[in-house]
């Protein structure tokens, strides 16, 4: 487990990378630390992820609304101030946002599935 000194994050200073979805795009601003990744992610209007993700995340909705869909058909609508959490390999999920959304996504070694 890593230790982190106090630091602030000015997301506007972190370079943006664009990731295409099946529809729309996601803009990531990523801070990578040892065993921990923190991202500010914006989905465009009509964004649909291009894959089913099995990675664990903590996803907090900063602004807007999105749907997290599981591969079993369940759908969860999350709006501003709502969060979901899942460990690695416990579900296949993908995101959809009709009108766009701003998210804070945290993942890392602490979300590895316990055997």
Distance between the termini: 18 Å
Classify the helix fraction into a percent range.
under 10%
Order of helical and strand elements: EEEEEEE
The Cα radius of gyration reads: 14 Å
* CATH C-level: Mainly Beta
Oligomer: single chain
Q: Count the E strands.
A: 7
Q: Detail the poorly predicted runs.
A: none
- Silhouette: globular
* CATH architecture label: Sandwich
Continuous helix count: 0
CATH topology call: Jelly Rolls
Classify the beta-strand content into a percent band: over 45%
The largest sheet is: 7 strands, antiparallel
Q: Mean pLDDT across all residues, rounded?
A: 94
Which class best fits the helix and strand makeup? mainly beta
Let me know the CATH homologous superfamily: Jelly Rolls
How would you explain this protein's 3D organization?
The chain has one domain: Jelly Rolls (Sandwich), CATH 2.60.120.10. The chain has no helices and 7 strands. β4 and β5 form a beta hairpin. It is 0% helix and 57% strand. Strands 1, 2, 3, 4, 5, 6 and 7 form a 7-stranded antiparallel β-sheet that branches. It has 115 residues and is mainly β. The mean pLDDT is 94.
């Amino acid at each position: 487990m890593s230790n982190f000194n106090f630091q602030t994050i000015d997301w506007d200073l972190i370079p943006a990378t664009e990731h295409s979805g099946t529809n729309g795009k996601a803009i990531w601003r990523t801070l990578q630390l040892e065993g921990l990744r923190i991202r500010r992610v914006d989905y465009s209007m009509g964004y649909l992820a291009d894959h089913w993700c099995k990675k664990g995340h903590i996803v907090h909705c900063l602004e807007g609304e999105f749907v997290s869909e599981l591969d079993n058909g369940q759908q969860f609508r999350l709006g501003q101030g709502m969060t979901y959490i899942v460990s690695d390999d416990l579900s296949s999920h993908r995101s959809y946002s009709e009108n766009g959304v701003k998210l804070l996504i945290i993942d890392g070694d602490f979300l590895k599935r316990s055997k």
